[in-house]
Design brief:
13% helix; disordered N terminus; 8-stranded mixed β-sheet; binds zinc ion; globular
Amino acid sequence: MKFKLFNYSILLSGLVLFTATSCKKEGCTDANASNYSEKAKEDDGSCTYDAGSLPTGYDKFYNITDIYVDGGNIIIKTTDEPDHVSPFYPTGHALYAPYDGTNTNFSTEISLMGQAEDPDIQAQNITFTVPVNAAENSSHEATGGGPIGVAINGVVFYSQYNGAQQLLDDLEFDNTDQYSGHPSPTNGQYHYHIEPAWLTSQNGDDALIGVLLDGFFVYGPKCNGVTMTNSDLDAYHGHNSATSDFPDGVYHYHCTDDAPWINGDGYWGTPGTVN
Ligand SMILES: [Zn+2]
Ligand SMILES: [Zn+2]
């Protein structure tokens, strides 16, 4: 009897240990993650990342599901739900707020092929695979429709073209909320085409605000305190210069006021994939 009890307690303590280990890792462990992604789970259920273990720039990403180095790529997983208020969140959502910007023509109704839709933001399941060591590719592939990169708050970047591959016009800007984004009327995928006002207002106009699929970072409208214009940049909306994150200089993109798009005629480097 005593012997059996002893066995039972060994089994029980083993179970407790196993359960405790499982709980600690829950939601923060990815079987494919490399040892770059040392992570901890916070009391609110979110994951934090060991900034020192991620390459420079990627330590700024938050509000995402996961981020880690896998071979020569960075993997960034996001539900693409902005961490700021939007009139496109369903009424009753904690981050729903009416439009309070300056555009008197603002409407949440987005015209799609002549039909007015009133989309809500919908959680997505998006994985970006981006090269860690970004390098110029002289073919400068054009950016396509859909996600071309991801902001540091997990919101996807789109190019300057709408679903019909036409340059965005006033009609589209009338659907841009107070933080410069809106959801796609087809699947509720929230995105920024232009400077994400939420990120630059929080972090400064010369802050790193995201990365494109080719692994080159995107900055706000200023470079080291100087407001950029298109004439300061190449056809891809980028240039090689020192930044606060890369004092030795690095190629990076800017959004500018005279053409506010995240990107220009295409990618400077070789784009990774988005799924
Ligand atoms: Zn759009
Ligand atoms: Zn710059």
